[in-house]
Every structure is written in C-alpha cells, then in structure tokens.
Amino acid sequence: MSNDSTDITSPIVAEQNVTESSQSGKKRRFPKIRISGLKRLDRYIIGKFLGTYIFAIALILAITVMFDVNEKLDAFLKAPLKATLIDYFLNFLPYFANQFSPLFTFIAVIFFTSKLADKSEIIAMMSSGMSFRRLMRPYLISAAVIAVATYILSAYIIPPANVKRIAYENTYVKNKKVEYGVNIQMQVADGEIAYMSRYDSKAKTGYKFSLEKFKDKKLVSRLTANTIRYDTLHQWQVRDYMIRDLTGTREQIKRGTRLDTIIPMEPRDFLISKNDHETMTTADLEEYISRQKERGVANIESFEIEYHRRYAMCAAAFILTIIGMSLSSRKVKGGMGLNIGIGLVLSFSYILFMTVTSTFAVSGIAPPIVAMWIPNIVYSIIAVIVYRKAARG
User: Fold this and answer.
1) Phi/psi of residue 390, each to 5°?
2) Pairing of strands 32-33, 16-17
3) Strands 235-247 vs 250-262: parallel, antiparallel or unpaired
4) CA proximity to 283, closest of 190, 144, 160, 167
5) Euclidean distance between CA atoms 50 and 260, whole angstroms
6) pLDDT category, 335, cuts 50, 70, 90?
7) What is the distance between the alpha carbons of residues 4 and 12, in angstroms, rounded to a whole number?
8) Could you tell me what percent of the chain has a pLDDT over 70?
9) Hey, how many other C-beta atoms are within 10 angstroms of the C-beta on 358?
10) Residues 6+ apart with CB under 8 A from 219
C-alpha cells in the first residue's frame, strides 16, 4: 500500500461503488464502502495465512533435514539411496511437520498479521467499520483447514508411513524393536489367562506356555505346552502339550505332540516397542487400547497419550491462531521482530508444556486425556484474555 491508512485499492478493503458524473454536470459521489460482502478479504487473508504456514514448514523442514543428515550420516551412507529417500525421508518429513504443526501455525499467524499491522492495513479494515470478531473469521477458517489436515494426516496417512520409517531406522540407524519378552501373562478372553516364560520374536516361538480357563472363579481347564509358535492372526501351534479338563472332582487328561488352535492374542499385544503407537491409525489405536484394558495390560500409557494428543493438536490450531492474531494485530514499538519473538516463545512453551504434561500420564499423576488437554485448557484461558483485550482496542 502506498499510503498507511487511506489507500483502498488492496484486497483488504471492501468493495466500492464509485460513480462519477459525465459531461452532463452531475455531482460526484464519494466512495461507498460495503461492509456486508468481504469475500475478497477472506480469500486474501486465508491465502496469505496458509501460504505463510506452508512456507514456514518448508523452511524449518529444510533446516531439519540438514541436521538429520549430519546426525545419521553413517547410516545414510550404508543404506541404499532409494530406501533413504523413499522409505525414510519421504515419510519423515510429513511426520515431523505434523508433530510441530502448532508451532508452524503460530509462527504463520504472528508473521503474516504483524506485516498487516505494520503497514496499517488492519487499521484500515477496522476504520471501515469492520469488527475485530469479523476480522477473526478468515483466520478461524484457515485454522479449521489446518486442523482437518492435521487430523487426517495423523489419523490415517502418517501411521502407515511410520511403519516404513521406523523399519528403516531399526535396520540402518538403531534397532529399538523389542524382540523378546519374559514372564508374559495376560487375559486373552473372558475367564482365560495365558502365560509364557519367554517369547522370541525372531523365532515367533514362546516357551513354557500355559492357558487356564476359569468359570465362576473355578479352574475348569488348563493347557500346558513346552513351546507355542505364532502363525498368522490369532493362529497358534502348540507342541508337546497336555490338556487337563476338570469337571467337579473328576479330571480328564489329553496329551499330544502338535495342536493347531486359535488364541485371541498377537505378539504385538505383549511385545511393545517404543514407537509402536505411532504406527497405528486412530481407529486401530482405539481398538488396541480397549482390548488391552480388558486384558489387564498396564503399559499402554504411550498409546493413550498418542490417541488423545491427535485430537488435542487439532484444537491447538484454533487456540494458537486466536492468541497469535490477537497479539500481533496492533502496531508495537518493537515492530515485527518483537511479535515474532513473542510468538516463538509462546509456541515453544506450548510444545514444552505438552511434553511435560505427557509425563503426568506416564507416571500416573493424571489420566492421559487430562494430561494431554491441560495445555489446551491453559492456553484457552490465555486466548480469551488476549482476544478480549485486542477486541477492546
């Protein structure tokens, strides 16, 4: 804009109805600003918002890739180039971008809005009769687009991609996959308790296996086997087994060398690796958590945290957008630099806060749903305060 407050030729100004007299000598009418239809303004702000958001992601991802290459250079040199580019980086970049979506959202809002405020464009909009609430509308529309994209990525697209990324890291960087377990005990069905002294994932074999069935808190059947081998979904093969069926005071014993049977459990139910929760879609996570709770498995906090984090991240897009827009919509003496500095501090503090509260769930201080929503609750209060202050001018 060539003039701080009087130029009305940019897309931020409402549609005008200007008529001039011809040679007939009629008087000229002054510009008439129509506040009702600001669709052009909405498109302008949404385009700038999302464009800045994508630019911020691209810039930070470029920096991240350089650091990641420097950290994992030895692994990248020994791994096939195709696997590095497709299996790792093609899946790592959307994963990292989605993890820090609140940071990118906040930076985009602060940067773009500060530019508008610095050029007095927001002053021009407010002077035309637009309310602060109306000005917030395209920002919230943009936040909704980011929130939907974040959820779709985290719920359906990134988990399958993480399978390839984590497999690459386990193969060429550092193997974090849990390959064996000891003293495994779990409830596989109502009244059925399974136990293995040890399970080897590479051999798909468990040792010293037993399966006990109870009815009315009384043992009615017990299967024991020297080994048990996993075949496919819920298909197990027991070897050197003995089955004891108890009916009242009578006992019937059956022995054999091999028996194919169905047991409603899988190795992933008891061999839980560090990043397993990142490889499940939201629907799979919900089903897995419900099934593990029924079985009495205790170490599922990471899965519950991931499940609730995906929804909390979507809400964060709206909360941080309101805070960022409210803080940067007014001119300040420090200019854009001060606003960007405040934005970075708040955005990083949000991510740090979410990381800290997640430990509350792991340690049992708070339920996972409460732990993951504490940052949103706190920052929602901040959003209400700064919004009301900015709306009053």
Assistant:
1) -70, -35
2) antiparallel
3) antiparallel
4) 160
5) 56
6) low
7) 13
8) 88
9) 22
10) 212, 213, 246
Write the DSSP symbol of residue 188. Answer: E
pLDDT one-digit tens code per residue, 293-314: 887 776 788 899 999 999 999 9
Assign 230 to helix, strand or coil. strand
Find the mean pLDDT for residues 133-139: 91
27 CA to centre of own chain: 61
The mean per-residue pLDDT over the stretch 162-177 comes to 93
Interatomic CA distance for residues 313 and 305, integer angstroms: 12
For the CA atoms of 43, 47, 50, 52, the dihedral, rounded to the nearest 10 degrees, stands at -140
| Tokens encoding 186 | 């779990």
What secondary structure does DSSP assign to 100-148, as a single string?
A: THHHHHHHHHHHHHHHHHHTTHHHHHHHTT--HHHHHHHHHHHHHHHHH
Q: Which segments of the chain does DSSP mark as H helices, in order?
A: 39-71, 73-78, 81-82, 90-99, 101-118, 121-127, 132-152, 158-168, 282-295, 301-328, 335-363, 368-392
Of 30, 10, 32, 44, residue with least CA distance to 129: 32
CA distance readout (Å), 159 to 91, 103, 122, 355: 10, 21, 41, 20
CB 34 within 8 A of CB 85: no
To the nearest 10°, the Cα dihedral for 264, 270, 274, 275?
A: -10
The closest of 239, 199, 235 to 223, measured between CA atoms, is 239
Residue with tokens 């399978």: 163
Tell me the residue type at 152: I
Say if residues 146 and 52 touch (Cβ distance below 8 Å): no
**136, two tokens:** 């917030």
Residues in the chain: 393
Residues near 223 by Cβ (< 8 Å), separated by ≥ 6?
A: 209, 210, 211, 212, 238, 241, 242, 243, 244
